[in-house]
Amino acid sequence: MRDALGVGVAVGLSGFAFGVTSAGSGLTLMQTCALSLLVFTGASQFALVGALAAGGGPFTAAAGAFFLGVRNAFYGLRLSQLLALPRAVRPFAAQWVIDETAAVALAQPTRRAARLGFVVTGLSLYVLWNLTTLLGALGAGAIGDTGAWGLDAAGPAVFLALLAPMLKTGTERAVAGLAVLLGLGLLPVLPAGVPVLMAALAAPVVLWADGRRKGRGIEG
């Protein structure tokens, strides 16, 4: 409960930044709120409004947002096994499959704790994110530059804080390090969202290299 509410509150405040950014990009209040209610994945939402603000077309902006959102499908595969929710509940739970709910749920020691963490994180974050989106869009002119407030960094900072304690082995740390290098290195040359997907290649590459190293150790 502590972890879930902490994440929900900390990341939910980032909705202010999205509301301000979206309104500044020319979207109406209704469009801004609809994105948070229906899309509910901050990275994709920021990518969409950022591309529109830069003069991109709606299809280009939507494509970048889609690529960023694809990662949630991979979270869903793991969470489906971990949470083992009833079939009737899964379509509703899918709306809350995002970075933060996945990180909190996967960090728990039991299925019951994972379910509790997923639900509390999802509910608190969904409510607060949509509320602050509305407030941010309404007060866009008064708030000004969100970067000066640091609200845009709250989500990534919380996610890294949750992820770091889970990197217990050398292999896990190598995967994380290579993923960071791939993501940052490809960011200037690939469309928005694609570097995130390419960073996922870090896992098979490191596991392949680790397997070859162990195989040589056995032969030696």
Automatic annotation (TrEMBL):
Q: Which UniProt key words apply to this protein?
A: Cell membrane, Membrane, Transmembrane, Transmembrane helix, Transport
Q: Where are the transmembrane segments?
A: 46-70, 116-143, 149-167, 174-207
Superkingdom field: Bacteria
Major subcellular site: membrane
InterPro entries per UniProt? Brnchd-chn_aa_trnsp_permease
The text of the family note is: Belongs to the AzlC family.
What is the protein name for this chain? Answer: AzlC family ABC transporter permease
Origin organism is: Streptomyces coeruleofuscus
